[in-house]
Amino acid sequence: MKLASFLTPYIHATWQKKGLLSALLLPLSWITARVVASRKRRARLAPSLPSLPTIVVGNILVGGTGKTPVVVAVIKSLQARGWTPGVVSRGYGVKIGPSPRTGQGDLPATEFGDEPSLIAASTGVPVAVHPQRDRARQALIKNFPDVNVVVSDDGLQHLALSRDVEIVVQDARGLGNGRLIPAGPLREPASKLDEVDFIIDNRAATGSQPLDRGVVVPFCKSRHAKRVSMRLQPTFAENLATCKRLAWTEWVARYRSTPLAAVAAIGQPGRFFQTLRDAGLEVAVEQALPDHAPFSASPFLNLSEDVIVITAKDAVKCRQFNDPRVWVVHVEAIFSNPAWLDELEQKLLAVEYSHGEAMKI
């Protein structure tokens, strides 16, 4: 296990409380606060030209919160309602160069990043990647003129990208100790939650307990954020080498008594391992790797188990290894109140109308 994988759980655990280490790092978090405030001031002063309706799905917490399944769910919901979405992303871990990179369909993770490749494969939508997401959006609109709504995978803090709807995804860590990095886990102050449109609470992966109904929580005086609970539910397993698919219940029944190895290079690998244990599977080996690990060599060579399970995010980087022992666990987001997606569309329709009016001026 690499040092980063070893330290990450400790760091996140430390950030859950206001201890001595957090207090010592507090002055550095004040620098973070000043940087965030400066970026917000620049964003307010920058001219905002009408563009396609844009949704940003992100988080204010360091580390994975389950954002990508929400992006996929939003895209599929929009497609079902007749929209033509496109996605912009940073392309984390990939050298993009000066110009944005665009594509559609089966996109190599080495060129687009693991999350954009997964989103493209799961939804079929066009994707544009670049560290400057506004440039990615411009390239997306130019190269795919049928796109009429843009979804940003992450980028909540990338204020140069204008947006019309903001969705924050949280997990069981909540806001941790409530402090900014490095004294705490927050990328920006918790007051950001006063401004967003939707807050999705990613609960435990197990389906043994029902999700609570979504509730409206007043985070500020002027507006309310719609709060919805979410659970990531496995739907099917796919063999990495043969592409054979089995319904999740069927796959679990087949391998319930087989000791297996689980490999994950995601923000919160423990959540994936817990999903497997909750299903009654015998996880003999848990191999947690750094988030977005490139997998330049096979991570399975040192594993002796007959069955290895990985996430869909990691699968886009592992098909070339052609290891018949490897199965991919595909999940989907289950919401306590799916009607929030109807409210999302209503917001987009209002934005589309306002943008159209602005273009007439």
Rg over C-alpha atoms, rounded to the nearest angstrom: 21 Å
Order of helices and strands: HHEHEEHHEHEEEEEEHEHEEHEH
Specify the helix fraction band. 25-40%
| Beta-strand residue percentage | 15-25%
> Can you tell me the CATH class of the largest domain?
Alpha Beta
Overall tally of structural domains: 2
CATH topology of the largest domain: Rossmann fold
Mean pLDDT: 89
Described by strand count, sense and barrel closure, the largest sheet is: 14 strands, mixed
Low-confidence stretches: 213-222
| DSSP, total strands | 14
What is the number of helical segments per DSSP (H or I, 4+ residues)?
A: 10
Distance between the termini: 59 Å
Structural class: alpha/beta
- Shape, per Cα inertia axes: globular
Just name the CATH architecture of the largest domain. Answer: 3-Layer(aba) Sandwich
Overview of this structure, please?
The protein is of the alpha/beta class and 361 residues long. It has two domains: 26-231 and 335-360, 3-Layer(aba) Sandwich (Rossmann fold), CATH 3.40.50; 233-333. Helix content is 33%, strand content 22%. The protein has helices at 3-14, 20-45, 67-80, 109-112, 114-123, 133-143, 248-255, 269-278, 312-315, 340-360; strands spanning 54-58, 85-89, 101-104, 126-129, 149-153, 165-170, 198-202, 215-217, 225-239, 245-247, 260-264, 283-288, 308-311, 326-335. Strands 1, 2, 3, 4, 5, 6, 7, 8, 9, 10, 11, 12, 13 and 14 form a 14-stranded mixed β-sheet that branches. Helix 3 (67-80) runs parallel beside helix 5 (114-123). The chain is globular and about 60 Å long. Mean pLDDT is 89; it is low at 213-222.
